[in-house]
Specification:
This protein is of the alpha/beta class. About 40% of the residues lie in helices and about 20% in strands. It folds into 2 domains: about 100 residues, 3-Layer(aba) Sandwich (Rossmann fold), CATH 3.40.50.170; about 100 residues, Rossmann fold (3-Layer(aba) Sandwich), CATH 3.40.50.170. Strand 4, helix 4 and strand 5 form a beta-alpha-beta unit. It is globular and about 45 Å long. One of its GO terms (biological process) is 'de novo' IMP biosynthetic process.
């Protein structure tokens, strides 16, 4: 059984989807803890499900590295095998990434490598994209630069507002994340192999 730590900052819709999935005894993963960087509304889902949770606020630490170390300690206390950034709205410090990657994944509301960063949906609309979507990827030390695991495409409707498009992306994001976690848990998706292949390709490009 794969043990998950889920990190959030807000309402926790992805967390809710994972809690619902892992409540099925046939699902090959369980959530052992939920961490947040603030008193996020989504922590209520963890409380309702009886899942341990903790809050590590950046303001309570001298710098990002210390915050990352405290966040990592909270996860390690629960023995998690995979860390899922499911709406954590902060860039994780390098020390945290090196501690957990490649067993550290994130969702992003675009078809990476297109439209990285905090305003992916807005950027896709500004570029006149006719389609965008969602990506589940391994977190590395860059911003939305880690190896892509799975993607789902969402068509952009003419004249669509950013909020409406983002909501439709979220409707694809939740099942894609659940499916990706299942594939990691059952061995269909090998994170170490994906990361190794990406590193090899990057090295070949530099040669």
């Amino acid at each position: 059984m794969l043990k998950l730590a889920v990190l959030i900052s807000g309402g926790g819709s992805n967390l809710k989807a994972l809690i619902e999935a892992t409540s099925d005894p046939e699902f090959p993963a369980e959530i052992v803890c939920v961490g947040a960087d603030t008193a996020a509304a989504g922590l209520a889902y963890a409380e309702a499900a009886g899942i341990p949770s903790f809050v590590v606020r950046p303001a309570d630490h001298a710098n990002r590295a210390e915050w990352g170390a405290a966040l990592a300690a909270g996860i390690q206390n629960h023995g998690a095998d995979l860390v899922v950034s499911a709406g954590l709205m902060r860039i994780l410090p390098a020390g945290f990434v090196s501690e957990f990657s490649p067993r550290l994944i994130n969702t992003h509301p675009a078809l990476l490598p297109l439209f990285p960063g905090a305003h992916a949906v807005r950027d896709a609309l500004a570029a006149g994209a006719t389609e965008t979507g969602v990506t589940v990827h391994i977190i590395d030390e860059g911003v939305d630069t880690g190896p892509v695991l799975r993607q789902a495409v969402v068509a952009v409707r003419a004249g669509e507002a950013e909020a409406d498009l983002h909501e439709r992306i979220k409707q694809e994001e939740r099942p894609l994340l659940v499916r990706t976690v299942r594939e990691i848990a059952d061995g269909t998706l090998d994170l170490a192999a994906v990361a190794g292949a990406a590193a090899g390709a990057a090295a070949a490009d530099l040669a």
